[in-house]
């Protein structure tokens, strides 16, 4: 298969983790006979510095012409300390989601068996956790009308949803539940918000078309507690934009590190894949950022194009790196491995995917040399 991939490294550790994902995709190319062409675009802080725009027109065009987008991260602390800044790096990502029509954000949450002890939760609580969050991505309070009075003493953000916006992601989530464990939990705040009551009404009606799927409801504050108390109760979680943003970041710590969680943002004609972690500017250039979320995001991209064996090869390589302890300091503080070492190992394992005699030289990994002997 031939795929055109737009690369948006972005800010902070984004370029470093994306480099490892591309390294693994090149291994997939060689092992399975595919051809991936890539073209890079600027977004976020680097784009603001160059053009004054967090999403330059050139970058948007690169994404529109690609089959898929691989994204790193955006964000810089300089913008966080200035509440009056009119232009922010994050605006680039929001604008890109809107321009590409990426209305569904899919975030799998799975606890790797080799990392159960890394979770801040008890082993019996996290063992076997495996659910997915469907977050509506282009509506709600993030995109609603924003107002502030002349004195800058009163501000508002409008949370607005249409039946159409809710319906299209709800159908996607129900179909996913049918292929999993036939359970969907709608998370809202219907006891307070009229927008949530619309969500509940629309999703309830759609649920009638999926009788095999059990539909449950949770208020968002209760859902936040249940993610910690009993995360194994969840299969598919469906929710609106801001709730999904918050809950998926909360869920990311269940597995022991936010550096493990991948995501896909899907529209009718476009798709973007990104780790859910931020730009982590303090770690930039230190070779300590966890690249696994970026690598697993690339695996989700392969699945999107029905390259299931290829995605499985990438996932198995990641699982092997975790079991071997070839990980970054966020997982094991005393590790001797860094960002590039993990990427090297995963890529080399993919290259030897069909080799039953695959062997590794752990010392060479630490030296940044080939892992294959």
Q: Would you summarize the structure shown here?
A:
42% of the residues lie in helices and 18% in strands.
Protein architecture, described:
Strand 1 (2-10), helix 1 and strand 2 (35-40) form a beta-alpha-beta unit. The mean pLDDT is 93. The chain is an alpha/beta fold and 373 residues long. The chain is built from 14 helices and 12 strands. It has helices at residues 14-32, 45-51, 57-65, 77-80, 89-100, 123-126, 163-178, 194-207, 220-229, 241-252, 292-304, 308-324, 339-351, 362-366, and strands at 2-10, 35-40, 68-73, 104-110, 130-136, 146-148, 155-157, 183-188, 214-219, 236-239, 262-266, 271-275. The chain starts with a strand and ends in a 7-residue tail after the last helix. It is globular, with a radius of gyration of 21 Å. It has a 10-stranded mixed beta sheet with strand order 2-1-3-12-11-4-5-10-8-9, with helices on both faces. Strands 6-7 form a two-stranded antiparallel ribbon. Helix 1 crosses helix 11 and helix 9 runs parallel beside helix 10.
Keyword list:
single chain; 373 residues; ten-stranded mixed β-sheet; two-stranded antiparallel sheet; 14 helices
Quickly count the helices: 14
**Largest sheet composition:** 10 strands, mixed
Helix content: 40-55%
What is the N-to-C order of secondary-structure elements (H for helix, E for strand)? EHEHHEHHEHEEEHEHEHEHEEHHHH
Radius of gyration, rounded? 21 Å
How much of the sequence lies in strands comes to 15-25%
Topology:
Blueprint: E1 2-10, H1 14-32, E2 35-40, H2 45-51, H3 57-65, E3 68-73, H4 77-80, H5 89-100, E4 104-110, H6 123-126, E5 130-136, E6 146-148, E7 155-157, H7 163-178, E8 183-188, H8 194-207, E9 214-219, H9 220-229, E10 236-239, H10 241-252, E11 262-266, E12 271-275, H11 292-304, H12 308-324, H13 339-351, H14 362-366
Parallel strand pairs: 1-2, 1-3, 3-12, 5-10, 8-9, 8-10
Antiparallel strand pairs: 4-5, 4-11, 6-7, 11-12
Helix pairs in contact: 1-11, 1-13, 7-8, 9-10, 11-12, 12-13
């Amino acid at each position: 298969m031939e795929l055109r991939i737009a690369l948006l490294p972005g800010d902070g550790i984004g370029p470093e983790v994306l480099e490892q994902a591309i390294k693994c995709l090149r291994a997939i190319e060689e092992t399975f006979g595919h051809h991936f062409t890539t073209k890079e675009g600027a977004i976020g802080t680097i784009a603001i510095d160059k053009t004054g725009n967090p999403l330059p027109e050139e970058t948007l065009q690169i994404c529109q012409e690609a089959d898929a987008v691989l994204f790193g991260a955006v964000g810089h602390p300089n913008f966080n300390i200035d509440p009056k800044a009119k232009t922010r790096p994050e605006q680039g990502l929001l604008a890109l989601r809107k321009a590409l029509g990426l209305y569904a954000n899919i975030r799998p949450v799975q606890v790797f068996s080799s990392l159960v002890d890394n979770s801040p939760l008890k082993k019996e609580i996290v063992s076997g956790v495996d659910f997915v969050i469907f977050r509506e991505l282009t509506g709600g309070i993030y995109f609603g009308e924003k107002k502030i009075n002349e004195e800058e003493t009163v501000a508002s953000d409008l949370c607005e949803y249409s039946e159409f916006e809710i319906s299209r992601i709800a159908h996607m989530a129900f179909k996913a539940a049918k292929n999993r464990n036939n359970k969907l939990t709608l998370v809202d705040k219907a006891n307070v918000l009229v927008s949530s009551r619309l969500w509940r009404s629309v999703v309830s009606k759609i649920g009638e078309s999926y009788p095999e799927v059990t539909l449950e409801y949770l208020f968002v504050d209760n859902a936040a507690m249940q993610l910690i108390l009993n995360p194994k109760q969840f299969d598919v979680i469906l929710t609106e934009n801001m709730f999904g943003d918050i809950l998926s970041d909360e869920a990311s710590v269940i597995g022991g590190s936010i550096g493990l969680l991948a995501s896909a943002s899907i529209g009718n004609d476009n798709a973007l894949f990104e780790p859910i972690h931020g730009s982590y500017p303090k770690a930039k250039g230190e070779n300590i950022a966890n690249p696994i979320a970026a690598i697993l995001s690339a695996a989700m991209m392969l699945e999107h194009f029905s390259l299931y064996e290829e995605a499985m090869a990438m996932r198995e390589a990641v699982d092997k790196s975790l079991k071997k302890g070839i990980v970054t300091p966020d997982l094991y503080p005393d590790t001797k491995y860094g960002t590039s070492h993990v990427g090297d190992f995963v890529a080399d394992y993919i290259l030897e995917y069909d080799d039953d005699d695959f062997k590794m030289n752990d010392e060479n990994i630490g030296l940044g040399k080939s892992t294959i002997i």
